[in-house]
Design the sequence.
C-alpha cells in the first residue's frame, strides 16, 4: 500500500520540526511492519504562510525524499489547501490520509486506519472519543454545531474534523465535486463507498496558536450549513406563512373591535409589530443574500486553488 499523508500548513514554523520528526518515525515503523510501501510520502501543503513554513518544507524535502511540499500561490483557507493536496497526489497513491499539522490528531490512529483500508474500507474517519479536554464553551458550541447540521439535513460524522483516510477511488470520486464553497466534512460522506470509523483521544496543540478562533469557527459553521442545505430558505418560507396567519388574525381582531365600537389602544402594539416584521424581513434578506452570494461565486468557476510549486522526486 502506497500511503500519502496530506497536511495543510499555515504559519506552522513552530510545530513543523516536531511534526515532521514524529511522522517520519511513524512512517518508518509502518514500513518496517510491511503495512505501507517504502515509497509512501508525507506531503505538506503551504497555504500562503507568512513565516518560514515553506522554507522549512523545502529543507525537509532536500534532506529526505520521504517529504514532499506543495506551495499554493496565495492563502486559500484550510479546506481549499486540503483539497489542493489531495487532488495533487490522488493519482500517485493507493490511499491518502489528511490531518492537521498541530499534532492534536493522534498519529497512532494511522495504524488502525491502514488496517481498516487493508480490510476493504475505502473511507476511514478519525473520530474523537471524547471532548473532556475542551473548554465548556468549545464543547457546548461544537456539540451544538453537529446538532444544527443534523437538523438542517446535512450528513456529517459526529466529532469528526478532517482526519480521515480515503482510497484512490474515493479521491477520484471527490474530484467530481466541483463546488467552490468547500465543506469537506459534509462532502466526503456524499462520496459513498464502504466506510468505517476509528476513535482516538485528541491532544493539546503542540505549539503555536489555533488557526480557528471563534470568528472563523462561526464563519466555518455558516459555510457548512449554507453550502450543504437549503433548509434555512425553507424555514424563511414557513416563517413568512406563520406571520401571514398572525396578520390575518390581527385583521379579524381589529374588524371585530371596530364593529363593537372599541378602538385599538396605544402605539406600542403598532410599533412592536413594525419592528418585528422589519427584523424578520432583514433576517430573511440576509439568509437569501448568503445563498445568492454563493451562487455568484459558483457561476464564476474560479479555481479553488493554484499550485505555484510542487516538490517531488522529479
Sequence:
Amino acid at each position: 500500500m502506497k500511503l500519502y499523508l496530506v497536511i495543510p500548513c499555515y504559519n506552522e514554523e513552530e510545530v513543523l520540526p516536531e511534526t515532521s520528526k514524529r511522522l517520519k518515525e511513524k512512517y518508518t515503523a509502518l514500513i518496517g511492519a510491511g503495512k505501507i510501501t517504502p515509497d509512501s510520502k508525507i506531503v505538506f501543503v503551504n497555504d500562503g504562510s507568512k513565516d518560514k513554513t515553506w522554507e522549512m518544507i523545502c529543507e525537509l524535502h532536500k534532506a529526505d525524499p520521504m517529504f514532499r511540499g506543495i506551495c499554493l500561490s496565495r492563502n486559500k483557507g484550510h479546506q481549499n489547501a486540503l483539497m489542493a493536496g489531495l487532488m495533487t497526489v490522488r493519482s500517485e497513491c493507493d490511499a491518502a490520509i489528511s490531518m492537521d499539522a498541530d499534532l492534536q490528531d493522534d498519529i497512532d490512529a494511522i495504524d488502525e486506519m491502514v488496517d481498516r483500508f487493508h480490510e476493504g474500507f475505502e473511507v476511514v474517519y478519525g473520530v474523537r472519543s471524547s471532548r473532556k479536554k475542551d473548554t465548556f464553551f468549545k464543547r457546548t458550541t461544537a456539540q451544538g454545531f453537529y446538532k444544527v447540521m443534523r437538523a438542517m439535513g446535512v450528513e456529517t460524522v459526529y466529532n469528526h474534523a478532517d482526519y480521515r483516510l480515503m482510497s484512490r477511488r474515493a479521491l477520484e470520486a471527490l474530484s467530481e465535486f466541483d463546488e467552490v464553497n468547500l465543506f469537506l466534512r459534509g462532502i466526503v460522506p456524499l462520496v459513498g463507498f464502504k466506510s468505517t470509523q476509528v476513535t482516538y483521544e485528541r491532544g493539546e496543540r503542540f505549539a503555536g496558536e489555533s488557526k480557528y478562533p471563534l470568528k472563523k469557527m462561526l464563519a466555518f459553521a455558516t459555510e457548512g450549513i449554507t453550502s450543504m442545505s437549503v433548509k434555512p430558505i425553507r424555514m424563511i418560507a414557513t416563517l413568512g406563512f406563520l406571520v401571514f396567519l398572525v396578520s390575518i388574525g390581527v385583521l379579524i381582531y381589529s374588524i371585530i373591535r371596530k364593529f363593537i365600537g372599541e378602538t385599538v389602544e396605544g402605539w406600542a402594539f403598532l410599533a412592536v409589530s413594525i419592528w418585528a416584521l422589519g427584523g424578520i424581513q432583514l433576517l430573511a434578506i440576509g439568509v437569501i443574500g448568503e445563498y445568492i452570494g454563493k451562487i455568484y461565486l459558483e457561476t464564476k468557476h474560479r479555481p479553488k486553488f493554484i499550485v505555484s510549486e510542487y516538490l517531488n522526486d522529479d
Notes: Residues 231-300 form one domain.
